[in-house]
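Journal club prep, notes for RB
We'll compare a predicted complex against what the paper describes. Inputs for the iron/sulfur cluster case:
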Amino acid sequence: MEIIINEDACIGCGRCTEICPKAFKLNIEKMKAEALPTDDLKCADKAANQCPTDAITVNNN
Ligand code: SF4
């Protein structure tokens, strides 16, 4: 599984980190989300679906 975050689109709202902290963390300096290594597709997908700017892509390959 691969998680890609479009940094241009991310507004640093932190929603993904609240929904799925095992897959996302907020880079405070950049105010952008970063992906963490995880195999929890369900959790990552849920966060991706809740991102207000559609900045998260989850590839299950
Ligand atoms: S939910 Fe989307 S906009 Fe908000 S921090 Fe995560 S990736 Fe960025």
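Talking point for the session: The first strand starts at residue 2 and ends at 5.
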